[in-house]
Write a sequence for this structure.
C-alpha cells in the first residue's frame, strides 16, 4: 500500500466535520508488476471520493517498460491536478541559509510530461505542449497564492528567447491572468527571468525570489535545486492541486536500500500533510502548527531532532520514530 488517502469531508476548502479517516490504496511499480497498471482505476476513484490524498514514495524504472506510466504523473493528469506547489523555507540547524522563503508554482499536466515520444529512424522525438487554458489557470493560482501569502513579486520563468511559441504563450498568459484579476497598482509586481538565469540565482541569491511561476519541466528541476535551501529533498514537500481535489507528495522518491531500517526521513511527509491541511481543507492554523512543530523539533537539543539530516535518510543513529515523536511532542 503506497498511497494514503485522507478523508472524512471531501470538499476542498471545507474543514472535516468528523475527523479524518485513512483509506490505503495501491500505486507504483510494485502495483504495476502484479496488476499491470501503475494506478488502478479503483485508486483513482478512491482519491476522487476522498478529495485529498497523501502519495507515498514509490519507485519507477529508469528505462522504458511497455505499458508502464509514472504513477504520480498519471494521478496528476487523470485527476487534473493542474498546479504543483513547492514551498522552500529555511529550517533551523539544517538549512545553509536562514532567509529563504520561496514558493515555486508550476503547471503540472502538460509540457514535456504529456508522454508523447517516438522513434523516427535513429532519432528520438519528444513533443512539448503548452496550452492557453493550462497556462492561464496556473497563472491565476500563482497570483492568488501571492495575494494570500502577502508576496509582492511573482517571477515568470521561461525560455521564450529560444522557444517563442510555447514559452512565449506561457509568459503571455501569466500577464493575461494578472490583467483579468485587476490587481491594484503596486500590490504584485510581475518580472521575467530566463530559466538558466533563474537556476543560477536560486543557488547564488535564493532570497531574491518570493514566488516563481513556470512550466512543468522547468519547475520540476528548479524546485529540486531550490530544495538545497531547506536541507535537501528529504525535507521537501509538495502539493498537486486541482479543483476540489489535492494530492500531497513528499518529493524525495523511494529508497529501497533503507527499507525496513527505520531511518527514513519523515519530515517531507509531515510537511506535505501540512500542505493538505492548508490548501485542501482550509485548516490554516493547524497547518502552521504542524510546520512550527517541525521547526521547533529541529531547533531543539533533543537527540531525536537536532542532528543534521541528509537527503532521504537520517544519520548518526537518529530514527524515523524518534524524529516523528519529537514533532508530535511539539504539537502537544
Amino acid at each position: 500500500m503506497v498511497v494514503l488517502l485522507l478523508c472524512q469531508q471531501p470538499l476542498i476548502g471545507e474543514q472535516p466535520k468528523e475527523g479524518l479517516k485513512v483509506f490505503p490504496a495501491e500505486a507504483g511499480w510494485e502495483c504495476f508488476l502484479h496488476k499491470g497498471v501503475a494506478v488502478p482505476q479503483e485508486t483513482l476513484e478512491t482519491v476522487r471520493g476522498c478529495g485529498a490524498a497523501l502519495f507515498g514514495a514509490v519507485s519507477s524504472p529508469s528505462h522504458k517498460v511497455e505499458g508502464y506510466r509514472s504513477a504520480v504523473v498519471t494521478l496528476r493528469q487523470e485527476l487534473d491536478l493542474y498546479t504543483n506547489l513547492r514551498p522552500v523555507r529555511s529550517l533551523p540547524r539544517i538549512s545553509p541559509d536562514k532567509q529563504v522563503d520561496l514558493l515555486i508554482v508550476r503547471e503540472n499536466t502538460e509540457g514535456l510530461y504529456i508522454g508523447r515520444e517516438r522513434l523516427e529512424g535513429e532519432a528520438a522525438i519528444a513533443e512539448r505542449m503548452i496550452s492557453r487554458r493550462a497556462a492561464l489557470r496556473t497563472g491565476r493560482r500563482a497570483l492568488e497564492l501571492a495575494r494570500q501569502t502577502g508576496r509582492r513579486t511573482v517571477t515568470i520563468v521561461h525560455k521564450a528567447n529560444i522557444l517563442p511559441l510555447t514559452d512565449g504563450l506561457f509568459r503571455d498568459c501569466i500577464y493575461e491572468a494578472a490583467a483579468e484579476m485587476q490587481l491594484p497598482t503596486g500590490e504584485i509586481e510581475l518580472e521575467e527571468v530566463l530559466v538558466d538565469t533563474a537556476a543560477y540565482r536560486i543557488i547564488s541569491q535564493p532570497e531574491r525570489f518570493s514566488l516563481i511561476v513556470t512550466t512543468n519541466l522547468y519547475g520540476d528541476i528548479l524546485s529540486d535545486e531550490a530544495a538545497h535551501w531547506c536541507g535537501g529533498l528529504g525535507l521537501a514537500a509538495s502539493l498537486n492541486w486541482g479543483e476540489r481535489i489535492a494530492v500531497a507528495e513528499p518529493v524525495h522518491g523511494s529508497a529501497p536500500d533503507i527499507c525496513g531500517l527505520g531511518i527514513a526521513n519523515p519530515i517531507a511527509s509531515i510537511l506535505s500533510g501540512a500542505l493538505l491541511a492548508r490548501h485542501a481543507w482550509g485548516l490554516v492554523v493547524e497547518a502552521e502548527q504542524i510546520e512550527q512543530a517541525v521547526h521547533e523539533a529541529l531547533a531543539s537539543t533533543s537527540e531525536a531532532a537536532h542532528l543534521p539530516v541528509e537527503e532521504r535518510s537520517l544519520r548518526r543513529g537518529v530514527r524515523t520514530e524518534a524524529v516523528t515523536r519529537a514533532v508530535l511532542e511539539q504539537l502537544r
User: Anything to note?
Assistant: The first helix runs from residue 29 to 35. The chain has a mean pLDDT of 87.
